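Late entry, evening session. Most of the bench is empty. Finally got around to the prediction I had been postponing all week. Sequence below, unchanged from the version circulated by S.P.
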Amino acid sequence: MSGTASENVAKQYQLSRSQQDEFAIASQQKAAAAQQQGRFKDEIIPIDCDSIIVEMDGCIRANTSIEEMAGLKPAFSTDGTVTAANSSPLTDGASATLVCSEEYAIQNKLTPLARINSIAVSGCAPETMGLGPIFATKKALQRASLTITDIDIIEINEAFASQSIACIQELKVDINRVNIDGGAIALGHPLGATGARITGKAAALLKRENKHYALATQCIGGGQGIATILESL
């Protein structure tokens, strides 16, 4: 369903294979640079698995090239443009965030990363479910009395390059504010974990980059989108 929807989005927005591949390789390059520079360390808890310490994302393809991507066959349609390289890969993963009241944080001597300003969920056509973030984001911005130009940091789920590009274009977002350490095309998109990952990432980036507002948004299978706007403290 989601693969077909990604092809539908690519056709609706007339997104070429090369556009999608370029977006995908940028995600890989940003994630590889972030990993090499240690920018993920504060976001990852090392796990001991039978004396093997898991402390790095193993999905990032630092040496991927446009030429290699161009050689892949379409994944969902013989004449399609969506491939394994410009889609999020199958990965395992886990993430956690703590959401609490200000009172609870003070009582337990916790240092919050950010405050939730607004949250919104919106429906969309199942055939183009990747567009859900567009409608959810607009609703969240309205609830926060903000515009997209007020948002400094944007984390979008990157289920597929076509979906991400369409949302970026429709929301008229500055691409330089989107997934600055790479996204799910490079890191993976484990169902049930992505929402916590990108929200936590957005909060961490607000602090690291000394910015004021962040948006975390993702599509939801079946025809929905969700968006959360965070505010620095």
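Two things to note before I forget:
Residues 155 and 179 are 5 Å apart (CA to CA).
The longest helix spans residues 17-36.
Will write this up properly tomorrow.
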